[in-house]
Amino acid sequence: MRKVIIPIGPQHPALKEPESFQVVLSGERIMEFSARLGYNHRGIEKACEERTYIQDIYLTERICGICSHSHSSAFVQAVEDIAGLEVPKRGLYIRTLIGELERIHSHLLWLGVAGHEIGFDTLLMYSWRDREVVMDILAMLTGNRVNYGVNTIGGVRRDIDADQLKQIAKAVDTLEDRTKYYIDIATKETTVIERLSGVGVLSHDDAIRLGAVGPTARASNVKRDVRKDDPYAVYAELDFKVVTDSHNDVYGRTIVRMGELLEAYKIIRQIVKKIPDGPIAVKAPRKIPAGEAVSRYEAPRGEDVHYVKANGTEKPERVKVRAPTLANIQTVAKMLEDRQLADLPIVIAAIDPCFSCTDRMISVRNDGQKRANMMKWEDLHTYSIEWYRRKGIDFSKVNEKFKKAVK
Amino acid sequence: MAEEAAIQAELIKKFPFLESKVRVQRARRIYTEVGPEKFAEVFDYAVKNMHFCILCTITGLDEGQVLSFIYHIAREDGTVLNIKRSVPKENPVIKTITPYFFAADIYEREVMDLLGAKVEGLAPGKRYPLPDEWPQDQYPLRKDWKTPSKGTEAKQNA
Predict the structure, then answer these.
(1) What's the predicted TM-score (pTM) here?
(2) How many angstroms from the chain centroid is the CA of residue A395?
(3) Do residues A98 and A148 lie in contact, with contact meaning Cβ atoms separated by under 8 Å?
(4) pLDDT in tens, B21-59
(5) B153/A292 CB distance under 8 A
(6) DSSP E strand boundaries for A150-290
(7) Which of A59, A111, A225, A253 has the fewest beta carbons under 10 Å from its own?
(8) A312: phi > 0 → left, psi -120 to 50 → alpha, else beta; which?
């Protein structure tokens, strides 16, 4: 059968963010899959070097909208390591609490997106409704729904009172109830099981070889979790288990994320019970002494790595970020090998990609021009045709045929 | 910290030239710096014989006369070994580590785009993360590259 190249993205209704995939098809079967990333590059690593540590906390927080707390935590952990700051226990408990609440909202969001991708929009409506419960808690604790602004170098910026702890405990009860219902659906509803089983298969060995992280790896029975292996904040004091599954497919990834939700509730209950009294932060110097540190953080999507190098001034010498999706995107080609094109949206969605995290930089260059150009509709149209033609995709013949047919 | 000390001792025992160059920063964090001629040997030993089987990422640094690359590799128990190597800026050639870690591909493309590293042995592929029409010899993460301010002409790399 003749091979056909289908471009998916950079702008495509099935994608939530700009990224470009090229799929070579034989009939409906995917023969080749390649990804081109970088459409969300915003210059954050470079920008971090030009700003102070305090400004960088807010900048790293904006690397991603969903795992914002993960990035700011990973960054401040590295800086605290370099400066030798001992963060008070209460501060670490609050940081962990926000981190787990973030995991809950991220996993519930994912469940909705996954439901949507398989045409089960009722699940999207339900899970996103329930996600509001955790969003309300986050808004109550931090004043914000996504970029919490809780972290600072040396601790956290906001304390929690007894009444808030009570409300958290109540919300966790509601959420646990709802999650159990979703687990019931995921494990009993035949449409879900049939649609997700055997789709996007990634064997245990491939997951290790390709360097998968987070729930994507754990669903291929790779028992790796930074919270357990390289504990930060107060995870060493908390009792939780690393959820793994050996289905190796999208179904397994669903089971892992649902299991992680239950573990997150368990962690939050322990935090509510154990959180000690005391200060929430220590004062950090404006100038951080020369040094370097590597910080790892288990974000909802997997291991987030930050490297910070300090040079003794109030601005860092280098900030390097490796978001989990960059590690996971390389597994997608394997998952899609010899699969149906119709599986592509759910397989990509199943690694819970976040391209905004993955890329971090674009620089708008307007060489010599005082004002940025606004393209007219016709120019944009011509530009896009030319852009695809350079990628080997040419519709001009088809268009001519079409014109003749219309005449 | 016994485990970290053991790793430090093993590295120094195997590679005597690393004496005083292996630094244990805190629990699970070890740093070392290796010259270009010995890098491959140390890296190979750490990956194959010391169970550093996870590649966290590769960090590229512009350090004036040299470009440095830090390979952050980790063990299942959470210990991270950071091996740094430096190459002259005028000819920043490093060898690919994709035979050890398939996932290194994208990290190596990243240092190629952002710092101008030349990676030997890397299979041809799409660039990451800069746009296709990005001008050559423009490496945004080098220290002499300045972010163009709004409305002014983009500063060319001298």
Answers:
(1) 0.89
(2) 35
(3) yes
(4) 999 999 999 999 999 899 999 999 999 999 999 999 999
(5) no
(6) 151-152, 155-156
(7) A59
(8) left
Q: Tokens 């995917």 label which residue?
A: A30
Helix (H) or strand (E) holding A135: helix A121-142
- What is the tens place of the pLDDT at every residue in B101-131? 999 999 999 999 999 999 999 998 888 889 8
Sort A61 into a burial class: Cβ within 10 Å, 0-12 / 13-18 / 19+.
Answer: buried
Top-tier CATH class for A44-332: mainly alpha
Sequence ranges of the domains in chain A: 44-332, 377-406
Residue A314: count other Cβ atoms within 10 Å of its Cβ. 15
Distance CA B146, CA B138 (A): 10
Burial annotation A86-98 (CB, 10 A radius, 16+ → b, else e): ebbbbbbbbbbbb
Amino acid A364: pLDDT: 44
> CA A347, CA A327: separation in Å to the nearest integer?
15
Q: Is B3 on the interface with A (CB under 8 A)?
A: no
Which segment, A360-364, B30-34, B130-134, is predicted with the most confidence on average? Answer: B30-34
How far apart, in whole angstroms, are the C-alpha atoms of residue A214 and residue A222? Answer: 9
Cβ contact, residue pair A38, B151, below 8 Å:
no
Distances B29 to A11, A242, B32 between C-alpha atoms, Å: 41, 23, 10
Under 8 Å between Cβ of A256 and A248: no
Assembly ipTM: 0.93
* Contact yes or no for B147 and A43 at CB 8 A: yes
Q: What stretches of A50-88 show up as alpha helix (H) in DSSP?
A: 53-61, 68-83
Residue of B nearest to A45 (CA): B141
**Interface mutation target, options B63, B102, B138, chain A, most CBs of A under 10 Å:** B102
**CA A273 vs CA A92, A100, A169: distances in Å:** 14, 15, 9
Which amino acid does the sequence have at A405?
A
